[in-house]
Amino acid sequence: MSPIPVSAPAHMNGKIALVTGAAGGIGRATTLALAEAGATVIATDIAGTAEFDHPAVRYRRYDVTSREETDALVADIRSDHGRIDALILCAGTISHRPLGKSTDEEWRAILDVNLMGVVNPVRAVFPVMAEQGMGKMVALGSIAAKIGGVASGPSYVAAKSAVHGLMKWVAKAGASKGVYASIIAPGPVETPMWETVTQRAAPSANGNVPLGRFGQPEDIAQAILFLCSPASNWITGTVLDVNGGMLMD
Fold first, then answer.
1. Residues contacting residue 101 through CB under 8 Å, at least 6 positions apart
2. Helices in the chain by DSSP H: which ranges?
3. Largest CA distance in the chain
4. pLDDT, tens digit, 9 for 90 and up, residues 140-183
5. With a threshold of 0.90, does the pTM exceed it?
6. In this structure, what are the phi and psi dihedrals at residue 43, rounded to the nearest 5 degrees?
7. Using one digit for the tens of pLDDT, what is the confidence trace for 193-212?
């Protein structure tokens, strides 16, 4: 393995990035942030179509729960671009049911998207990055995985906790191969998914967030850009809290 380069100013010039969950609030903001920073971005989601007003973005429908679709996607990216420099895992769904009212179907659905939707692309892309000798993976975890939930149910907390552990394993296994893995743990971010939470009992920004507002997708996107860029060349296995001060860990 070549020595890991020293950290340098943030950019994504010439990089190939794969984003899952790109049609959602955080995924869309991340896709555009990476493209603006110089990357060619393969933006994916379960939606049939999605519009991105940027020439460096290529959209493709992709189901993260399918290993077959995962293998086909990674093979196509390698055929078209020769490499994958960054993998950003934003696909996710949420549940609010308390433990006693949760169902087997709910647990399977939440774990399938939030956990296997990380496992599938990570295990397909890891050997690609190891062969290259360099690559960065960033998964969306959650503050819920660190404090036991904000307004989400146990299935969501369990899935995100597993993602935190998985990415730390990948960071250790990949360090000698130049493969980085980190986690973003957002607090409440105003996205369509968060709207399903605010219809229930949810924290107030003034009462629970020291910085006085909920997050915006761009807050998370810029943190992801940092972890994908050369600015973070001595950071791996970290859980980066981006939550307005709700958790000071």
1. none
2. 25-36, 67-81, 104-114, 116-132, 144-147, 154-174, 192-198, 205-208, 217-228
3. 52
4. 999 999 999 877 899 999 999 999 999 999 999 999 999 999 99
5. yes
6. -95, 130
7. 666 555 444 555 657 889 98
Number of H helices, E strands in the chain: 9, 7
Amino acid at the residue 107: W
Structure tokens at 20: 């899952």
Helix axes 104-114, 116-132, angle to 10 degrees: 20
Question: Which residue carries 């991340």 as its tokens?
Answer: 30
The token pair at 236 is 């791996």
Output the CA angle 87-159-155, nearest 5 degrees. Answer: 150
Single-letter amino acid, residue 99: L
**Residue stretches of the chain with pLDDT short of 50:** 199-201
Evaluate whether 121 touches 92 at the Cβ level (below 8 Å).
no
The answer for residues whose C-beta is within 8 angstroms of residue 214's C-beta and 6 or more apart is 187, 188, 189, 190, 194, 205, 244
Q: Are 118 and 111 in contact (CB under 8 A)?
A: no
Q: How far is CA 214 from CA 67, 98, 155, 199, 202, in A?
A: 35, 24, 23, 15, 11
**Are the C-beta atoms of residues 246 and 143 closer than 8 Å to each other?**
yes
Is 127 strand, coil or helix?
helix
Cβ atoms of 225 and 39 within 8 Å: the answer is no
Packing angle, helices 104-114 and 154-174, rounded to 10: 30
Tell which residue, 211, 247, 239, 223, has the closest CA to residue 26.
Answer: 223
Catalytic residue at 62?
Answer: no
Residue of 184, 115, 114, 110 lying closest to 143 (CA atoms): 184
